[in-house]
Amino acid sequence: MTTENPAAGPTGPSSPSSAAADPRPPVREQRLSGQLDELGRRLSAGDLGSVPVVGGLIAIWGIFQALNENFLSAENLTNIAITMVATGMMSIGVIFVLLLGEIDLSAGSVSGVSGAVIAVLAVTHGVDERLAVLAALAGGALIGAVHGFFFARIGAPAFAVTLSGLLFWSGAMLQILGSNGTVNLDPGGVVGQLTTYYFPDVAAGYGLAAVAVAGYFLASFLDARRREAAGVPFRPLAGILLRTGLLAVLSFGPAVVFNQYKGLPLAVVLFLLALTGTDFALRRTPFGRRVLALGGGVEASRRAGIDVDGVRIAVFTVAGTFAAVGGLFWASKIAAANQSAGSGDLLMNVIAAAVIGGTSLFGGRGRTWNALLGVMVITSIQYGLALEGIATPVQYMITGAVLLATVVIDSVTRRNRRTAGRA
């Protein structure tokens, strides 16, 4: 005989409303209070998300503004935004590799090869600059595919493969540039304008912000309705409106800043497009789901029918392509390709941006938007210390300390998530 509980309803073995028969976790309630309760549960379980890095960025800006009133000026913030694009583009590719639980040490040297190829083809040999750009990007993709082949098919450790690539492609860059060592680019050319072109019309910045906000709201609303129709947990309208309002602040705020200086920078637009496209690829496509699954467990992914070797090669191809893209922006920034391209602290900053932004070193957890947060932190520190006249060695030390703190937080978070059963 079936018994009933006035509060819980039927509890018989065939009852579809039985709590034991419903595999869905009791999260994302329809009321906004349920959303806040779920957020509290996630934070208490160690799932901090982007909270630490956002709080750190606010603190960094507050400290440097207190030290120098010009730090938050429209000119300085615009310069920070443009400078961070090159490192951020490269960090996007590194995030794909980190999601596998691997590392790519060749990003800096590949970016240097990219700039050298463009400069030699376009300037020395007179090739159309657009074709030179395509050749550089194709070269970066091919280099990444080669690294992926040795890692996936041959079984060599990614660390060793990309470390070899770091040395090999650094030498290749020097060989391509030749004895002169420096090739100047046309500042008005395709590459030169990547970091120097601005959309002067104020409508450009505000229009991009409006499109981003409207697009996010529409996508979130339609996704919620689809999930509701399917009978799975969905985000309530109040939660969508709250997130949309926050995005509006984060979108129109920078637009106001850019329009107070020279207008919306082309580099920022391209960076945002890259972030949006890669985030969609990771979260909404079969390829992205395979990457995340592979980062969660290689053997489980193989048993699920995922082409492990193919995904690994594709991921390193993506990393090589974005390293080449970053090389274009660095070449544009200095209007030249030289022997120092891709060296120094570039590789450190690229990897640090990914990790500081929230991508786990253990694989399987992260988003390409982490590159934006991480590179904002690093570039803000660099510009703030430069305004104060602090030497480069101190900048290295501070950046290293921030990176260590992030890794510690990541490790503790992972342990807490495992304890709470959320890992």
List keywords for this structure.
423 residues, 70% helix, two-stranded antiparallel ribbon, mainly alpha, two-stranded antiparallel sheet, 15 helices, disordered N terminus
Short description:
This protein is mainly α and 423 residues long.
Overall pLDDT confidence:
85
Gyration radius, in Å: 24 Å
Number of strands: 6
Q: How would you write the strand order of the largest sheet?
A: 1-2
Q: How is the quaternary structure best described? A: single chain
Order of helices and strands: EEHHHHHHEEHHEHHHHEHHH
Sheet of most strands: 2 strands, antiparallel
What are the segments in which pLDDT stays under 50 over at least 5 consecutive residues? 1-30
Helix content: 55-70%
- Percent strand: under 5%
Number of helices: 15
Shape: globular
Q: Structural class of the secondary elements?
A: mainly alpha
The first-to-last residue Cα distance is 40 Å
Describe this structure as you would to a colleague.
The protein is mainly alpha-helical and 423 residues long. It has a domain at 201-261. The protein is built from 15 helices and 6 strands. The chain has helices spanning 32-44, 51-67, 74-99, 107-124, 129-154, 158-177, 202-230, 237-259, 266-284, 286-296, 298-303, 308-334, 346-357, 369-387, 392-419; strands at 4-5, 9-10, 182-184, 198-199, 264-265, 336-338. The strands form 3 sheets. A two-stranded antiparallel ribbon has the order 1-2. A two-stranded antiparallel sheet has the order 3-6. Strand 1 (4-5) and strand 2 (9-10) form a beta hairpin. The longest helix has 29 residues, at 202-230. The chain is globular and about 65 Å long. 36% of the residues are buried.
